[in-house]
Amino acid sequence: MKFRKRTLEMLGDLICGNLGAADPQADAEPAYFPYRSSSYITEFFAELDMDWEHDGSTRHRWVAGVLEQLLAEPHEGPSHPPESFCKVIDHLMNPADALNEGLDRPNALRLLNNALAREGFEAFYGEDQHCYLRHTGTNTVSMLAKNPHRPLSVAEMQRRTALAAFLDTCSEDALIEEVLLPLFRQLGFHRITAAGHRDKALEYGKDIWMRYTLPTQHFLYFGIQVKRGKLDATGRSRAGNVNIAEIHNQALMMLAHEIFDPETNRRVLVDHAFIVAGGEITKAARNWLGNALDAAKRSQIMFMDRDDILNQFVVTNLPLPTGAPLPDTVPSTDAREAPF
Fold it and tell me: What superkingdom heads the lineage (predicted)?
């Protein structure tokens, strides 16, 4: 990833604290970033466990050179800067470093976004008071930690409970459009298309198909079969539940049917199938599915249940769907609640 030299030097000025008057009573705009001399610039990067040491050259240009090298590190794609660069931005915008303004740092955020705007990014504070980068073209957010199995904070648990309440009442179309499409976009999938779900025309077992680009620029294609309720393995399913054997047959249809990718102008087969349930996938259903898949298909068919959706959605910091209750109005009773 490459940023313009002017952008990098503007970011260097912010890290060095070169902007604004030291005296808040002066006519000029006050400083909103602390001034950092040579040793403090070295300390700034050392706090991020980076080994950069200022060599005594012009400070903001030296910092710009460091940022240029951080941007050259491996990353997920053009809408996701390298994690080390995101850490620098988050550290720069630490609320504890607020100067001549409140902890939400609106003026510092304004100056930072003035620099980032020409590169197609926008900085913002999340509910956890960390600063994140959003790609304005795709609306994807670059996250520092995406582990869905880590302990969740109290605020995240409230959002998780609110999303669970939404899943209890939403339709299958709402589950797809309000939850799954934003989630898979955020996770780095492209060309996400809800394929004929409303009229069931030419669906062939898939509600969604999407594409993932490997670092080698090869494509993998995914099809998704979505069910709102519970997936079970009983002989006669209750209302709202679906038998896993039916879903298995739909997944096989999905893998056998070609899709047309208009960007590459060719027909391709789906490489992997996702079975996604808004409810629970019972242990018996998982066992049946594992036994039904031969060695070739075992790696092609994957599944996500309610807990997977909730955890992935919360840790990626996506906004709650329209119609979901406010997080602070839903009591959290989940046993995983554990603040950092």
Answer: Bacteria
